[in-house]
Design goal:
The complex is a heterodimer of chains A (337) and B (67). Chain A is of the alpha+beta class. Chain A has helices at residues 2-37, 84-116, 124-157, 294-303, 312-320; strands at residues 40-47, 50-53, 59-64, 71-72, 77-81, 159-161, 166-169, 178-179, 186-190, 195-201, 213-218, 224-232, 263-270, 284-289. Chain B is 63% helix and 12% strand. Classes of the chains: A alpha+beta (337), B mainly alpha (67).
Amino acid sequence: MANSKRVFAVTLRVIATLTVVAIAVLLGWFAWQHYVYAPWTRDARVQANVVNIAPEVSGTVGRVAVADDSYVHKGDLLFAIEPVRFENAVAEARAALEQAKAQENFARRNARRLERLPRGGVSTQDLQQAESEAASAAASVSQAEARLAQAKQDLDWATVRSPVDGYVTHLLLDEGDYATQGQSMMTLVNADTFRVTAYFEETKLSHIDIGDPVDIDLMASPERLHGRVASIGRGIAVANNAPGERNLPNVDPVFQWVRLAQRVPVTIDFNSRPDMRVLTVGLSATVHVRPEQADTQRSTSANDSNDRPVAAPRLEKARAEGLAQPVDTPVMRGAGG
Amino acid sequence: MLSEQIAFGGIYLPLFLAFLAATGLIYLVVQPLLLRSRAHRLFWHPALAGAAFFIILLASLMLAFGP
């Protein structure tokens, strides 16, 4: 009797131990799956289109109309090159045009006069020469007109205006500097193109679709921002493609026991223009893709046309190109989908 | 939802390390209590049960507060 009680007690203790172990394995498995395969990453950066402003004409900078880190609208004056040389060029081109017109007028009248002379009054050679001179003078007028237009354009280009709404960044230009044609003098950050590029492990890509809602946590701000997946990178560099000796592929021997998942850039657009006080190109961010919310948010936004995300145009373009998949359609990206 | 990182003198560490540390602290507090109450006698293999308890704590924290 005592022996059977002892066996029963030991059995209960074994069952209790195995139960706790089973619960640990189950919870550990869920936690591992959630932590390792859930589509989130701490490796994300804020990005925007950066416009390098270079003058179309060279000259001394006469005026800088903006301050560093200031906001400019499209069309606002950035800086101006001393216009005297270009104004003179316009005046010269205008005079050259007048001269060409006068010569063309004379040549045309001369040719007409010779044409009207009676047969034998002028040699064929003289007549052809007069007609040729008239045609040449007409071409000279066109040439002078083009030069005048170019001189006016150069004068216009001496005033450099902002091509986008954005922020002046890292301004080193000052009055008196010599601006060289085609050489970058100023940098603008396009305020309409702020986005987040998140670098996801390739193991997580199967959980991400274009259009999925995303939560964005900037390291610079406690405020949570929201966006959508706009695109998924379609290529990263492969080190083995670098040519080696005799242009053969330079394939590194790797130790296959330890492999690192490749990182693929995923572009995320903000749903609405975020607070610009906290948004700077290069900021660190943590992003969570929420595929489970995709259905709900899509149906909501479809009913509310006012809640149009910033990402919408790019999403529509992606869908038109067949890149964006419906949420309920499984995607095999590994197969090039 | 907690922040996904903890700042440590300007170095931002993943939240997982915080979970690990919190689990260790909780375990250090709870284990003597369990020993004092002789709860380890309920298990056939107390060390295995202790390890499982540690994993349950860690996984629970990750699932409840993790990213």
